[in-house]
Amino acid sequence: MREVRTTELPGPGRLAILREPATAALYAALLLSMGLAIFMAFLFAPAERVQADVYRILFVHVPSAWLAFFAFGVVALGSVMYLIRGRARWDRLALASAEIGVLFTTLCLVTGSIWGRSVWGVWWQWDPRLTTTLIMWFIYVSYLALRSYIDDPDIRQRMASVVGIVGVVSVPIVWFSVEWWRSLHPTPSITNPGGGMPPEMLTALLVSVAAFTVFYVVLVRQRMQLELAVAELGILRERLHERNEESA
Amino acid sequence: MTGDLLYLFIGFSAVWLGIFGYLVYVTGRVRGVRDELHDLKGQLDAPQAGREAPNH
Fold this sequence. Notes:
Oligomer: heterodimer
Number of helices of chain B: 1
Structural class of chain B: mainly alpha
Number of domains of chain B: 1
Number of strands of chain A: 0
Order of helices and strands of chain B: H
């Protein structure tokens, strides 16, 4: 009979989760980095010459896009490792990262749309970057849908791993779309030398990216913990059911 | 200018609501599942009805 490792979960109590040193440290890092990111986005970075203040959406739009790419890279890594090692924790990592990647892709599309409405005058354009990002979003929503439709855990994990590995191809397509096709979207201004971004803006943007990355770690950790708890719940229910059948 | 600030406000609000909403949702679910786990563990640890009865 499989051992139930409920000790990995925090004990009872509303704020019990903060009693774990690692979690408390993560949350402290999150608060500090987010506070600094907001300060730098609004008070440190200067207003832009043409767009004035609305360009500050950049400080949430770019980190959302970066985390979407990063999250889907982690999905591929978790999927490969699951297929090689067969350990459920890699599959849990892939699932958690896919869900959070979809969240950040959604936020990237929403903030991009709001920014586009302000700058281009339209909410949406069938521009290569926007269109490929939307396709990437559909790929990972399908990944999550696939997982919820397959009951057998082994088949579910294997099929999801294959989709998780194939789906990551969409990331470089989104990244290079502005160079491969004519696009309204600007080309990368951080990785290209002489991108033209003033140092204050660049620093604020990098701090914001770092703060959002800490947020990603917090979210993935929490989501993996949930998946582990759900798996343990299934085992306990099975054991209780078996015991009730024995005594009947 | 005011319109621009409104877009900025909507953009930041959408991101914060999205991320914190998700965190609150997942944390709430973890708490719910954890409580259920404690209940089930309690049920499994409790002696079974009739099992302790002496055999004659």
